[in-house]
Amino acid sequence: MSETRSKIIETINDVCKPHVPNLSDGDKPLLSEGIDSLDFASILIALEDEFGLALEEVSVENLNTLNRLVAYVDANRKS
Question: What confidence score (pLDDT) does residue 79 get?
């Protein structure tokens, strides 16, 4: 597992406590894994802080799975 993927999973789990979503299928939409829209917004804000990203410039529909988040962060991270 890549370092980016591990950090994103850790961030998702921290935001969603006490409910920890099942992220074993990286292509499954996060909202179908029990993450609600408020948690999803909080996850994106936390990832902006963690990786120095500006996600407001990106359509969040394109970041709706774990694999898409990892690919975006790997391609655009500043830290």
Answer: 53
* 66: its two tokens: 């774990």
* CA-angle at 21, arms to 32 and 7, nearest 5°: 115
**What is the spatial distance between Cα 17 and Cα 54, in angstroms, rounded to a whole number?**
25
Token pair, residue 31, equals 């909202």
Cα(63)–Cα(61) distance, integer angstroms? 5
Round to whole Å and give the CA distance between 49 and 23: 21
pTM for this prediction? 0.88
What is the three-class DSSP state of 34?
Answer: coil
Integer Cα distance of 26 and 38 in angstroms:
20
Determine contact, residues 25/67, Cβ cutoff 8 Å: no
What whole-number distance in Å separates Cα of residue 74 and Cα of residue 76? Answer: 6
